[in-house]
Each structure stands twice: as structure tokens, then as C-alpha cells.
Amino acid sequence: MAKRNMVEALNLALRQEMERDPSVIVLGQDVGINGGVFRVTDGLHARFGGDRVLDTPLVESGILGSAMGMAIGGLKPVAEIQFDGFTFNAMAQLEGNVSRYRSRSRGRWTVPLVLRFPYGGGVRALEHHSEAREALYALPGVKVVIPSGPRNARSLLVAAIRDPDPVVFLEPKRSYRAFKEEVPDEEEVGVIGQAQVVRPGTDVTVVSWGAMMRPVLEAVENLAGEASVEVVDLLTLHPMDVATIATSVRKTGRLVVVQEGYRAFGPSSEVVAAVLDEVFWDLEAPIQRVTGYDVVTPYFARESLYLPDSARVQQAIRKTLNP
Amino acid sequence: MPAVTTFTIPYLQVLDEHGRLDAKKDPRPSREVALRLYHGMVRAREVDDRLLKLQRQGRIGTFAPTTGQEASSCAPALNLTDRDWLVVSFREAPAQLMRGIPLFRIFLYNAGFEEGNEVPEGSRTLPLAVIVASQALHAVGIGQAMNLRGEKDAAVLVFLGDGGTSQGDFYEAINLAGVWQVPVVFVIQNNQWAISTPLARQTRAETLAQKAVAAGIPGIRVDGNDALAMFRATREALDRARSGGGPTVIEAVTYRMRMHTTADDPKRYRDEAEVEAWKAKDPIPRFRGYLEKRGWWDAAREEALVSEVRKEIDDSVKEFEAEAERLLREHPDASFDHLYAVPPAALKAQREEFLRRVRGEA
Question: What is the CATH number of the domain that holds B39?
Fold first, then answer.
């Protein structure tokens, strides 16, 4: 096994899938010779050449729209958009075509592509480079995957590439180089649609995903001895693994949901609604949500004040235990 | 087959890279105007140097350097009147400064403060656009508002980059500009590189100016490192726009001497020899030579200008750092400002909770 950060783990997934399947290609801005602005595609152009690692002009809608055509045309494109804030130029393609092509063509034409991009704050970047808007991609016909660490990033990207449907793959850029994990060279294929209980507990369930998993685990660490916390990492946002969440809340009777992005109409709302649907009578305390505020993503000078942190998570856990 | 249509793209250069003047094309700016332009260019270069130092010291964040593009950014902005509008993208600090955006705001923006976007009261200037080419449509809309409201003698100047010309928004903007005959001047900063993508991989078109042809509007290619050519081309285009003559696309051929942003390493994809070759075309010494020949400039004035500008920058850095410190202390909740004309109750409650927490009261 080798220790790898998330960038290296994603790079490994891409490299191995491209070796395994000649129909897998990569396209995006600066993904070739430059290796991607975060270096996720580093070395792929040298290894596989310009016909499989395509540097595109500055065209987000073009990247996703043409990737869809390539998918229909028999390739498995892995399209990169440079930053979260620039994906919105491609939203017309995602909503209007990519998400619904299997349906529109009554199963005749399918779109097995991956749209990957870095998301979220915490890296002191410019406007539109720190957005956490993951709910906006959760369209019927699309799967939304968000890894939280190097190992699941690698295995889930492999799964996303092999998935027969379009997968939007959000990479927590704050976690790109923040820590390393053992990531084996041998193949590991994640399961899309499956959440993971990353830490068992009995008193309260905390549900989160992506970059928020680190402050969540830190908070749980800080509460050791005070509370037995079960932590669920969603990993796939859409379709959501309600069964795993419900099983946990049925056991603990208490729920905290932690979301980086602004509060209104976010994934945390969906988690809460699902829990109310499934296990309302098992709840022992009001549900707590730790989220961003309903404001435009703050510029970086103040962003750390607005991003949920372990202190807020701890406070929310205590609140569910002492309602 | 007979040709249905053909086109030519004019090229304007007044002062070549060796400092030779094409006197017939000289727009002959007054001494006062020429010196203001030169001041703006030197000031912008010094600001860029300082921004780079501040970034390396961790006192500001990532920014997009402008060195090499002073002529193509300052000269168009110099031609604006107070009735004209300026719409910029993210690599146009020289134009913003020429327009009168206070220097400490530029520093503040690059240090990650929303307040860096504040435009002085009365100035028809938009905050910079990061979403590439999106601003081109806003410029067209402002121009069409002038048309519909019957506002005369004013124009809109909008900047974008060579990468921006690949975006759908750019094509939509020039198409609308042609259909609506708006008083808009598009200046495309063709600095040859969009991060690692060279122009030849951005488009197969021989020039960016010719993209105007498809929209039915005039396009001209200009030596973007020639301050006189940029001054003349934008003055003519703005005059035409103000007098009901419609839009123009100006391609300024220039060069991004530094990195895309400070998060970028051009050594991975660009040959240093190319950068060296463009150094010989630097717009600042070229224009200085012209001023010297006209007897408007000399070494003593140069020395005085540089020290004056550096003093101003020193003062602005102090002003910005004091303001940054004050804003963090006194106004952590700035993100709750200016979201709605009337803040909704739920947002007020969030703001109160935020402030209690930040002040350690919760």
C-alpha cells in the first residue's frame, strides 16, 4: 500500500481506468500539458497522448455538451470543469440534456460520463472558486458523488467512470492535499448510492459528506468520553442512501446534519426530511443542522468565520443530547 | 463559385516595437493627455510589482498580474468620459485605476474583501467579472438601455480576454450588439494565453477581430503594446458609438508577461524564450521614447514619477492594511449586507446568531 493524498488518489483512478478501458478519455481546460490546475490529471497527457487527454478552449458548456456527444458516440468521457463556480455555464446541458437523455431517447442513447470538479471553500480563493452548491446538481437521472478522503475518492471515481449513467463528482478541494491515506495500487471499486458508517456510536448520529467530514470527526474526537457519536459519511448525495441514515437514527434517536453550503434548499434539508419520513417516532430530540448562512459565498478574508467548524458541530451535538 | 462576401481586417500600429513612428497615423494626443496615459501605465506596472510582492509575503491572496498589458488596458479607459460606462474582467487593474478606482480598493479586493469591489459614487463602473465573458452581455444590456431610453453621447467599454472569445456569452453578446446596434466597444485583450492554452489552441481563426464579421459589426486588430494605436482605435470606436454608429470589436494584440494568476506556474507549459521575445515589445519604454522625442519627458521626470508612484503605493498599502484590520474587527458580518433591498426576517436572525457566535457570546 502507498500513502497518497486525494490528488494522487484521483490521478491513480484516472490512470488505471484509462489503462483498463481505451474508451475512457479526459477533457477540460488545462488538463493536458498543465496537468490540471490542481494537478489531478498530472502526467496523463504524457502517458496517453492528446487524443485521450484533450485540452479544450475556455468552454464549460462546450466541455459538458461535447462530452455528452462523445458518450453517445461510444466513449467514456471524464470531463473536468476547473472550479465549482464555473459549472453553472454548463448547467443548461446538465439539466436540459445530460440528465434526461436516457429518458428522452427511451433508453436508446445513454450518457455514461463523469463531470468532475473541485468544490467548496477554505483555500483562500477568489470569487466563484469556493462554492458549495451540491444540491443544485441533484437532478433526476444524475448521480451526485462526493468523496471525503483519498481512499474513497479513488474507489468512487473508478465506480463513477464505470457507471452506466452520468455522475457529477464533486471533489472537496480543501481536502486535496490536506492529508494522506493508504490507497492500494490494487483495484478498489466503490459503491455509488451507499453511505458509510465511519464511526459507530449509540447516543447521536451525525450525517455529513465531503470537506465537512474532517471538522465532524474532530468534533467527535473532542467529545470522546462525553458522547458516543455515530458518524455517517453520505459519499453519494443523490440518490441518497436513506436506509443507512434511518438505521442509525433508529438506534441513536438523535440527529445532527452538517453541511458546508448555505442553509436553504441544501442536502441537509433532504436528509432531515427523509429522517422525518422514516423514523419520526424514534426521535428523542429536535434535529440540529450546522450549515453555512444564506449569503453569497463570502470572500476569503472572512470565509473561515462562515464555514462550519468543529466547535459548531460540538455545540450542535451537545444541544441534541441536552434539548 | 462566386464569393457571396469577403472581408478584410484592418491592422493599426502607430509606434512600432523599435519606436518608429508612423506620423500619418499619430493621433497626436495633447501633452497633458499623453502624460496622463504614461503615468497610468507606469503606475499600473508598479502596482503589479507590489501586488506580486504582497502575494509572495502572504499579505494578499491569488491575483491576476497585468504586466505587459498596460497600453491595451489604460489607453481605452483614458478615452472614457464620465457619461461612459466601464465593464471589466479580472485582469484589468490598469483600466480600473485609470478610471479612478482608488488604489487601496484594488489591494483590498485582492486580500479577499468584498469592500474591494466598491465603486466611487457617481462612477459608471461595474465591479470586475470573474465568470469569463459574462460581462460582455451586461455591456450590451447597458448599451441597449441607452438606446431605449434615448440617452445620447455615451458609450460602454467592455474588456474581455482571448479565452473569453470561446465562450457562448461572447458570441451572444456580439450578435446582440449587432442586432441592436448598441453603443458598445469590445476590447479583446489577446494576451496569447488562457492559463496554459495558447491562442492557436483556442481558435483556428487567424484573428479574433474577425469574429466581429459574423456579427455584422466592424472588427479591427491593433498592436496592443502600442499606446498610441490603442488610444486612437478606442477613441475612434467610442466616438462612433456615442454618435449612433454602433458597436466595434477591437482585438488588442499583447502578451501576458507573467503567470495567469499567482497560483499558476507557466514554466510547465510555456517557453521562456517566448517571454523574452515579448520583452522587446514592452509598451512602457516604447511610449516613453515617443514622449522623449516630443520633448515631454526625460530621465529626471522619470525618476520623479517612479518615486511619486512608489510613495503613493506605500501609502495605499498602509491604508489598505489598516482598513482590512478594521473591517475584520468591526464588520465580520459584511456578507449579510446588500443581499436584498429589505433583509428577510430569517436572514436577520441568522445574522444575529452569527454575530453572537463570532463575538464569543454563544
Answer: 3.40.50.970
